[in-house]
Each structure stands twice: as C-alpha cells, then as structure tokens.
Amino acid sequence: MAEPGGRGLRVLITNRTLATRTGTELYVRDLAFALAERGHAPVVYTPQPGDVAREIRARTIPVTDDLLAVAEPPDVIHGHHGLETLAALLAFPGVPAVALCHSWIGWSDAPLPSPRVLRYVAVDHTCRDRLRFEHGIPDERIRVVLNSVDLARFRPRPPLPARPGRALVFSNAAGPGQAHLPAIQEACAAAGIRVEAVGASAGKSLARPEEALGGFDLVFAKARAALEAMSVGAAVVLCDAVGAGPMVTTANLDELRRVNFGMRALRHPVTPAFLAGEIARYDAADAAAVSRAVRESAGTGAMVDELCELYAEVIAEHAAAGPDDPLAERRAAAAYLQGLSPRLLQRDLLASAFGALLRRPLLGRLTRHAAASSRRTWVAQLLRMDGLD
Fold first, then answer.
1. Beta-bridge mates of residue 168
2. How many helices and strands (H and E) does the chain possess?
3. Exposed, middle or buried: residue 229 (CB in 10 Å: 0-12, 13-18, 19+)?
4. 198 has which bridge partners?
5. pLDDT per residue over 221-269, tens digit each?
6. What is the percent of the chain with per-residue pLDDT over 70, rounded to a whole number?
7. What is the arithmetic mean of pLDDT over 349-365?
8. Hey, is 44 helix, strand or coil?
9. CB-based contacts of 54, cutoff 8 Å, min separation 6
10. Do 358 and 388 contact (CB within 8 A), yes or no?
11. Which of 151, 223, 176, 173 is nearest to 20 (CA)?
C-alpha cells in the first residue's frame, strides 16, 4: 500500500523503551522492518533507546529520542504506551493516530483518550475487553489485530522425537527467586527431561531465539515467546511467573490464540503436579500440526496487512472529518496527565524510599550487593536514579 503520489506512508512508531527484549520492543522492531520492506518509511521514537534501537537503526530505519528532531511530520502515528503517544500527538498536530494495547495490566498500556486517536488496537480479546469495559472505548473504534511471528526467521525444525528430551523455559521472568522455574525443573526431572532457562532474569537473553528454539522438544512460555516456539515445531506448555496453562494442541489453539497465550490462559497455580500432567500430553504429531496451523495463519505479513489497511482508514477518516478541535485535544491531554500524576508521585516515593535504604550503612551494602547480583534491568535503573549508584 502506498499513497496516491506513489510514496509509501511515513509511520511514526512510539515505544517507552527499546533497551531490552520485551514483547513491545520486539513488536516495534519487526513492524518497522516489515514496513520498510514494503516501501513505507517508519520512524521510531523512544525516550530510552538501547540494544533493540541499535538493531533497528542498523537497518537504516531512523530511531530518535527527541521528537523535535523529526523534521517532517508523519502521515500516521502508531502509538505504543500512552505518555509516548501523547508526546507524539503534541509534537505533530493534525496527524491521526492508532494506539495499541498490549497488556491487561499496567498504566502505560491504558488507552490514551484523544480525538486524534481514531482506532484502538488490541493484540488479543483480553486487551479488547480492557479497552471496552474498563475504559469505555466504543466497540467501533476497537480492532483486534492478533500477534504474529516472522516466518522467515523462525523456520521449522526437524520432526520431534516420540518422547521429549530437552526443554526450554523461554521467559524474561525465568530467573532465581521465581517459583515457576523450580516447579518446571521438578516436573521435567521426573519425566527424564533436561531443562534450560533463557531470558532477562536468567541472565541469558537470546538476541536470535530462532537459532536456538529448534534444539528443544518442549518449551515453557507465554504470549509471543509461545507463538515463536510453536512456529518452529516445539511442543508448548503455557507457563510463566503468573501461572500455568495447558499444553497447546490443535484442539485448543484457536481459543488460546484469541487470548494471546497470555493471562487468561494461565489460570492454574504453577505446581510440579499440574505441569507433569501437561507434559504427559506431549504428542509429536499434534505439535507438528499446531506448527503448521500457526505458520498458515499467524505470519507477520498478515498482521502488517491489517495494520496498513488501518493506517489508510484513519488517514482517510481524519481528512474527511475536517479541522481538528484544539480545545478537545487539550482537554483530553489534561485528563490523561491528571491521571498520570498520582502514579508518578508513587514512583517518586518508592525511589526515595529505595535511596534512603541505600544510605543506611549495613542495609545499603546488602541492598547494593543484591542489586549488583540481580539480572533485573529495573534494579539497575533504580540505582541510576539521582546518582544512587
């Protein structure tokens, strides 16, 4: 899809961070790559650039932490996270936007009320319900565009063995102190399965998971990570720190994809007994059928087709609507910022309490030692605040 003049669309994509490898960061990367390959002109804005930002820029896609440095306005804003989307709307008056909701929880994924946000995109039906029933977004302004997987990167593995021999815990929460990791290890040990863990908390992030997933027969994951594992042909049990879910099979695949293999599917406590029951459902032939179904329906191409159609729709709708209402826009921005203020105060109080703790001689040393040995990026960020490190 291109504009009538032949130029592809200039799409400004926002995200609160591109420093690690969380779901939204990788979504932005893959979307930017796909748009560029189709002849569009993505530009990415994040106030916290990092590894993923460098990966995007290596493809000659502009990445900036300063919206005022973007010399030409975009045709459409693709907004992740309310505050960053609001900044983009204020920087580029007259540009319409679509805003994505990736999560059932978290203030940053709450919808930004603005007359120029013409569509709200939910990545699954759980997020749709958040938009519709907790924030009052009219159903006609919501689209569900399910998550996808880059099929060119995630290639099919050889056929699975009759019995699983190697398992992978594929999660940014799979680190020391998380109860689900010992439960998985215990259940797998009882079945004679070797286990490895990767992810930010495990201290072993995978820049190229497509090169590793094919070496595992069974994968414990949720959401995007689960979809990637299915696409290569591994058997997948839904599991993360928040709970456990079923083995993904041909019988439940469609239902589970509608909720993005996420929170609504993770309804069970993570116990060795529950996980052992799901491991016992391992079926190499059914896992192969799941993989084929995912590859037929969940490729990134289909997702980007939907988004490009949506961009064209909101651009046309905005043009037909006539002049924007500056007062309505200012009032919407004020309402969002009013709601944000208590959350920022809460964070300031937590940071202040953390700083006071660090200033206590014994507790400070213990806290710094614990933080230094932690693989969680938010601990390092806390230490950097106000020079606490």
1. 196, 219
2. 13, 12
3. buried
4. 170
5. 999 999 999 999 999 999 998 899 999 999 999 999 999 999 999 999 9
6. 86
7. 71
8. strand
9. none
10. yes
11. 173
| β-pair partners for 276 | none
Q: H-helix or E-strand containing 119?
A: strand 117-122
CA distances from 220 to 5, 181, 193, 238 (A): 48, 10, 13, 6
Query: In which residue are the tokens 């995200």 written?
Result: 15
Do residues 231 and 30 lie in contact, with contact meaning Cβ atoms separated by under 8 Å?
no
b/e sequence 262-299, b meaning 16+ C-beta within 10 Å: bbbbbebebebebbeebbeebbbebbbebbeebbeebb
- Copy the structure tokens of residue 228: 């990637």
- Give the mean pLDDT of the chain: 89
Max CA separation in the chain (angstroms): 67
Distance of CA 122 to the CA centre of its chain: 12
Between strands 97-101 and 194-198, the pairing is: unpaired
pLDDT tens by residue, 61-95: 999 999 999 999 999 999 999 999 999 999 999 99
Count of CB atoms situated within 10 Å of the CB of 340? 16
